[in-house]
């Protein structure tokens, strides 16, 4: 719903916002791409930003592969596309508890379609509802706040905090760069910083392996 | 208020973003069994989203739209709204409450500061 409100109040026309919700189906990537679309950033910058925001799904798909390895190509593609943070977490929890049914692919397809319907209904409610709200209420700021709400819980490990801080500072300093390239410099700096912090943490917690 | 964003350019952007969702979510499900995720790559992929989002949020909050200048003062309504949302998030994990607190603080600061 928030992504719907943010898309319309960010300046997207209602039919396009609905199409974006239906086709892209990735709330954080949509929220990340939105300010770039509104600012008229080049296509490749917008798509690359969406891509980086979606990179976590690469890890998810690697974790799901052993479960769905025997399925036909089209079915694997469909299960992958309709997977989200929520449905992936749900699946892995059942897998860990050993409560997955025998046809785990059919069960996962059910979980994912439920989630898709709920998400789209609430996004479209947000899109249409927001189009009736006056612009001077400042509702476009909900997009930024939703990103804050997404980032907050991820800051539970030191590498994430280090990475986010580096990314924010570099993006702020590099902000005058054209084509919103400051965003990229920030993201890359953050990823490098987080990777280094993670390596330092590994060394600190496992000193015995070096001896 | 500018006109709503629409048109062919937006259609191409939407298709590109849809493709990015598809490629990342199906990557390993469709790849051959020989492809593996190295530890370093997995670490980088794990922290990529939070870093990208931070790179978007920080300038968005600290750069004041009218002057396009960095405004880290407590007179900046976007900063006040974001701080309120962040504090709410520390106190409870409720996202709706966090958005409501952030919007309330942002609106009050915008109208009265």
**What is the percentage of strand-forming residues of chain A?**
under 5%
The interface involving the most residues is between:
A-B, 93 and 70 residues
Number of strands of chain A: 0
Which regions of chain A have little confidence, pLDDT < 50, spanning 5+ residues? none
> What proportion of the residues of chain A is helical, as a percent range?
over 70%
Tally of individual helices of chain B: 4
In whole angstroms, the N-to-C terminal distance of chain B is 23 Å
Main sheet characteristics of chain B = 2 strands, antiparallel
- Overall pLDDT metric of chain B: 84
Contiguous uncertain segments of 5+ residues of chain B: none
Structural class of chain A: mainly alpha
Helix content of chain B: over 70%
Number of strands of chain B: 2
Mean pLDDT of chain A: 86
How would you summarize what this structure contains?
The complex is a heterodimer of chains A (211) and B (113). With 211 residues, chain A is mostly helical.
What labels describe this entry?
heterodimer, A: 211 residues, mainly alpha, 11 helices, 0% strand, B: 113 residues, two-stranded antiparallel ribbon, 4 helices, 4% strand, extended
Describe this structure in words.
The complex is a heterodimer of chains A (211) and B (113). Chain A has 211 residues and is mainly alpha-helical. Chain A contains 11 helices and no strands. In chain A, helix 1 packs across helix 2 and helix 1 crosses helix 8. The relative contact order of chain A is 0.13. Chain B has 113 residues and is mostly helical. Chain B is built from 4 helices and 2 strands. Chain B has a two-stranded antiparallel sheet. In chain B, a hairpin with a 4-residue loop joins strand 1 and strand 2. In chain B, helix 3 packs antiparallel against helix 4. Chain B is extended, with a radius of gyration of 20 Å. The mean pLDDT of chain B is 84. The chains are: A mainly alpha (211), B mainly alpha (113). Chains A and B meet through helix 2, helix 3, helix 4, helix 5 and helix 6 of A and helix 1, helix 2, helix 3 and helix 4 of B.
